[in-house]
Amino acid sequence: MRIHLRSGGWMKWALVVMVLVASTALVSSTKSPFTERDKAFYADEATVNFVRPGLVFKILSHEIATDGTVKARFRITDPKGVPLEREGVNTPGAISTSFILARIPADGKYYQSYASRVKTSTYPPTAGKQARQAGADSGGTYAKVADGEYVYTFGTKLPAGYEKSSTHSIAVYGSRNLSEFDMSTNYATDVYSFVPDGSAVTKVRQVFMVASCNKCHDNLSFHGGSRVGVDICTMCHTPAYSNGSTTVDNTNPETGNTIDLTVMAHKIHMGSSLPSVQAGKPYQIVGFGNAVSDWSKVGMPSQPNNCQWCHEKSNDGAKQMDAWLQNPSRVACGSCHDNINFATGEGHLGLPQVSDNQCKNCHIPQGEVDFDASIKGAHVVPQASSLVRGAVVKIVSVENTKPGQKPTVTFSLKDRAGKDMAIGDLIPGAGSGRLGFTLAALAGDYGKGISGAGTNGYLQETPTATTAFTGNPGLYKYAFTAAVPADAKGTWTMQIEGRSSEKLLAGTQKERTVSVNIPNQVSYLSVDGSAVTPRRMTTDTAKCNQCHYNLSLHGENRNVVESCVICHNPMMTDAARRPADKMPAESISMASMVHRIHTGAEQPSGYTVYGRGGAVDFSDVEFPPPALVSNCSMCHVTNGQNLPANGVYPVTDPRGWLNPVGTSSAACLACHSSKDAASHAMANTTTLGESCAACHGPNSQYSVSKVHAQ
């Protein structure tokens, strides 16, 4: 290990190292607080014991003097509780800290920060325009009172006559830069609430938990990463308020948009679905350094009307988790439905609303029927509607699967309630519901051409008449019209896919037809008596649905990863659908396609795929910040991102730098899409195959997990 000795406190570190090594022997024997996503996970033990990476803040207590001076005692430690020094003299890495002091008025429900600042626009279109925004304290002082413990004295004093019976909160946030030790910058936040008169805290502002955000966002943080979580956001991102003679309007001076979290969060997640955006007005906020954040192209993967995806119930749920149901408001609802003019009633059935007092009279939490004016009813996801009967198919057995035989699949057919369902309720005729069957060769991977089974190695049939089935409601058989190819061998896959098509609220003004996906069923079998070898699993549908809620594609027909990979195999491109003047074709092999979709905005030439409905352009897709697409474990299971890749066949990639391209290179180059990266892959591929794992294997110096760590 190399230690850089510098002037000042760094010269003292030699003594500190001796103390730390002696004092941390017991600490280092405990389980590491770091995961493979952290750079500190890969540091040697001596470096970890010396640097003590990580950062944890804890506000311990507060004091309020008679003149309104506020003090907060706080502790700084590493994740194992070892004290850290704020100045970075006797422990590595200086630590920056900032504080916010805010209250929730007795007659209000939002925070009001005691400190604010004037932001003056330097953005050319609005240069000179000003707005006052809530913010952190300034002019405060620090005093060290113990190892790792400090007292911060706020520069802002409480005004005379402040509300001693209202909830007050102190937040501390900051960072610790350890890049000098080849580690990342650590961030931490803590929020401490109290009532100045000593009574219990009963009023809070907590309408959802950060765990709900982190289903997609991984580790929600903003402003350079220093503000972690949601609780701290609510202390500054509030509606306009007055601090005595000072009005805090909390707007973005460059755009005029409010920075109230209620409005921002809804508008950001609605993005491209906002009526105002669809009418041609982008939704933007101009931040530090005139960086323009434009959310006009955001497409929420879980569907923006799915309120419960964020406002979800859980055992550790937010204290006001039902606020969205019990207290509808013009601000909250109007932030998504921003084409409504509540003052005139335009877009609101002609009913003006001068206050929020009447909102809950019409918009009750839940009505008697879906798609009504109730909050849940108006925002129901059609496929999840209680009016939907749905269909559930389960493979019972597959017979006659030897080469030359015509397979027969036996399956159960029930509705979501578990009641037996007749095949005529699903496919009474062409153009209604659908049930499709696929028998695919799994020769280590899909896509290998087999005589008599098409160039993609599978038999696919979609019967359109009930006469194609035998059996009774609840249990049916379907016999393939094609035979298993004579040269078939090894493991094959039987898949059932489909959708139901249902008319809801027939005869009413709310009548609608809904296509509802049938959960795909996959079963592995042997056509020659050899051992069955299921396809490898590098990800699973549950991982997809952590963000996508209910990922279903191709007309609501395909909805599990095991189904997707049959067609989206190494040899598959969009050539069959791509116009001649748009050639060459694009690879739609699963690994290449998914990686390219999720890095759409980073692809040097974009990523556009042609399907039955025409072109689908993913060039604007960005991973939900602050989540990083480099966090492979957000999608992969069982370390499926590790090299070497387990694919069998090279990937056909006509528009790529290399064609064909090896399985490991294909997966990596889909994200690392530069010419230099492709040249590196080519240089490490010979007639013997790819050598990627030599440097990037699980135990190598540049393993996939290590180089993607933060």
The fold-level CATH name of the largest domain is Immunoglobulin-like
How many helix segments? 19
Outline: globular
Give the helix proportion (percent range): 10-25%
Radius of gyration over alpha carbons?
Answer: 30 Å
What does the main sheet amount to?
A: 5 strands, antiparallel
Low-confidence stretches: 1-29, 450-455
Topology:
Layout: H1 13-23, H2 25-28, H3 45-51, E1 56-64, E2 70-77, E3 95-104, E4 112-113, E5 116-120, E6 130-134, E7 141-146, E8 149-153, E9 167-177, E10 185-194, H4 210-217, E11 221-222, E12 227-228, H5 233-236, E13 241-243, E14 246-248, H6 261-270, H7 275-278, E15 284-286, E16 292-294, H8 323-326, H9 330-336, H10 359-362, H11 375-378, E17 392-399, E18 408-414, H12 423-426, E19 434-441, E20 458-461, E21 469-472, E22 475-479, E23 491-504, E24 512-517, E25 521-526, H13 541-548, H14 561-567, H15 590-598, E26 608-611, E27 614-617, H16 663-671, H17 675-683, E28 685-686, E29 689-690, H18 692-696, H19 704-707
Antiparallel strand pairs: 1-2, 2-8, 3-4, 3-9, 5-6, 7-8, 9-10, 11-12, 13-14, 15-16, 17-18, 18-22, 19-20, 19-23, 21-22, 23-24, 23-25, 26-27, 28-29
Helix pairs in contact: 6-9, 15-16
